[in-house]
Specification:
Pfam families: PALP (PF00291). It is built from seven helices and four strands. The chain is an alpha/beta fold. The protein has a single domain, classed as Rossmann fold (3-Layer(aba) Sandwich).
Length: about 140
């Protein structure tokens, strides 16, 4: 048995791979507008981190119940964090509406295929390191 420690990633989670992959492929004009999303944790950190790397402003709506440590991390990574609503769905709708109004590139945490492609790169690393692997 082998273990891949994704908790040793820059943000302590595998999701950082998704944000970096997505923003790396984003059109420069979208990066200039600023990127936005809603999150209660790791996804928001991923987008904040990637935005910092690619010189984009990040706007992240979080529900009132969001983990304070995750929120602080997003802010420390340069994101403008907006507390809004009792739960994720309310924060998400708020950010969708705000993004339309302000022209931000909204990033849907569950519909962006490049997020999944980025996150999935850890499996490619496993296959490269252990080509004989049967189960991941």
């Amino acid at each position: 048995m082998y273990v891949k420690h994704e908790n040793h990633q820059k943000l302590g989670a595998f999701k950082v791979r998704g944000g970096v992959n997505l923003l790396a492929q984003m059109e420069p004009q979208d990066l200039k507008k600023g990127v936005s999303t809603a999150s209660s944790g790791n996804h928001g950190q991923s987008i904040a981190y990637a935005a910092n790397i690619f010189g984009a402003r990040a706007f992240i709506a979080v529900p009132e119940i969001a983990n304070p440590g995750k929120v602080e991390s997003m802010r420390n990574l340069g994101a403008e964090v907006i507390h809004y609503g009792e739960h994720f769905g309310i924060a998400d709708q708020y950010m969708r509406d705000l993004s339309k109004e302000k022209g931000y590139k909204y990033i849907n945490a569950v519909e962006e295929t490049q997020l999944y492609a980025g996150v999935g790169t850890y499996t490619l690393e496993i296959i490269e390191d252990l080509p004989e692997v049967d189960i991941i």
